[in-house]
Design goal:
By secondary structure, the protein is an all-alpha fold. It folds into two domains: 125 residues, no CATH class; 279 residues, no CATH class. The chain is built from 17 helices and no strands. Helix 10 runs antiparallel to helix 12. The radius of gyration is 28 Å and the shape is globular. The N and C termini lie far apart (68 Å).
């Protein structure tokens, strides 16, 4: 014997430990809910997990009669307990302990047949469902039915359509494929929706500064518009709005870089680390200075991002259409006018939604160098900041917004300077 622990023993040990942890979490959950011990104690769940492991191991080949027989016996046991609890009017009839027992029974096959991360992921989900009941209840109560319906539609289309879309070029666009377009739609909608949900449901009474941060994840332009409009109406908020506006732009750089990296444009992401990192860091420094200058007024009203739900399907389809449109337009401009035309187009696009332009620019292989593409991304993001500077001044009509607008305009000049020095 070489002293090594048999792999099968390690798998059995992992199964029993995971089942034991499930039992501990279920016991803690019941104590927090002032429920009786009932079915599914720590010892019971540990033995259920061990039984599932042994029956799966002994079954050996198809059909798995022993394991399925054990599953039927467990289901009958759970049904009896559920019926008894309903008749007695006690907590014994709850569905949750039965679900946890079924998970414990399935841990043995998972440990023996799946990668290590799979049973770990199942355990994490189960523990989260047990331990985070107040948070889950708060989210469920706060979220309207329409949000759930929209999310369900999006998940169905993303899960069904994306695998079916061919990885073939769209006619006339060479490197722009159907799957690339929809992957960009899925990813940008998911990131934007995360910011939207965080602001509206997790932090509905967020401070002005937090609104700028979350709004930048959703849309820095939309956040700037909301902050400027409400700063015009609320003097207390107006003192904090400049810092929040610049913070939203700092988040724009982080969000855009994250999108570029997640979509697989690694070379572009690496080359944008320095300029985006510098502009983001300077924006954060300006945010801090403006926040110190404006003070922390507790009397300010809470800003509300009232923009459209970014997970609405029409919004997703509009983004896809813009992606294809900008790809075709970029191909036309670079073919006819070269780098100069691309730079002019990037500047003009900055006064609209830059995300589809930037992502389509990076996805395609146009008749310009990689350096020219990076420069176009910087120009587009810089001119978008100029648009936000105009929104901040015109919509707020307050002199307190001047420093924020000045920085946004200066960030355009810094972007152009980077392009000129690296050209």
């Amino acid at each position: 014997m070489n002293g090594a622990v048999p792999a099968l023993l390690l798998q059995f040990g992992a199964t029993t430990v995971l089942s034991f942890v499930l039992g501990l979490e279920l016991h803690s959950y019941r104590r927090a809910q002032d429920e009786g011990v009932g079915f599914g104690t720590t010892r019971t769940l540990t033995l259920i997990g061990a039984a599932g492991f042994v029956l799966w191991l002994l079954d050996g080949s198809q059909p798995r009669g022993l394991y399925l027989g054990g599953l039927l016996a467990l289901a009958a046991w759970l049904a009896v307990d559920l019926a008894r609890g309903e008749r007695a009017g006690t907590g014994g009839g709850a569905l949750l302990p039965g679900m946890i027992a079924l998970l414990a029974y399935a841990l043995g096959p998972l440990v023996q047949t799946q990668p290590q991360w799979m049973p770990a992921a199942v355990l994490i989900v189960a523990i989260a469902m047990l331990a985070e009941k107040p948070l889950i209840r708060r989210i469920s109560d706060a979220m309207p039915v329409s949000e759930g319906v929209t999310l369900a539609k999006f998940l169905i289309i993303a899960g069904l359509v994306l695998p079916l879309l061919p990885d073939t070029p769209i006619p006339g666009l060479r490197q722009i494929t159907y799957s690339k377009v929809w992957m960009a739609v899925v990813l940008i909608s998911a990131i934007s929706y995360a910011g939207y949900l965080a602001h509206n449901y997790l932090f509905p009474k967020a401070s002005t500064l937090l609104t700028g941060l979350l709004g930048g994840v959703y849309s820095s332009t939309a956040a700037t518009v909301v902050l400027a409009r409400q700063a015009r109406q609320d003097a207390a908020l107006a003192s904090q709005a400049p810092a929040a506006t610049v913070l939203a732009t700092a988040m724009m750089y982080l969000r855009l870089w994250l999108l570029i990296a997640l979509l697989g444009h690694r070379d572009a992401a690496l080359r944008l680390v320095a300029p985006f990192g510098l502009l983001c860091a300077l924006s954060l420094a300006v945010t801090w200075a403006l926040w110190r200058r404006g003070g922390n007024s507790s009397a300010a009203a809470t800003p509300r991002l009232d923009s459209r739900n970014p997970l609405d399907l029409p919004v997703a389809f509009v983004f896809a259409a813009l992606f294809v449109f900008f790809a075709a337009l970029t191909d036309f401009v670079t073919t006819r006018f070269g780098v100069g035309g691309l730079n002019a187009l990037a500047f003009l696009v900055g006064f609209s939604d830059i995300d589809p332009f930037v992502l389509s620019l990076l996805a395609g292989h146009f008749q310009v160098s990689d350096t020219a593409v990076i420069h176009a991304v910087l120009i587009a993001s810089g001119s978008n900041n100029l648009l936000k500077a105009g929104y901040a001044l015109v919509l707020s009509r307050r002199r307190s917004m001047l420093p924020a607008a000045a920085w946004l305009a200066l960030s355009l000049l810094l972007s152009l300077a980077w392009v000129w020095l690296r050209g």
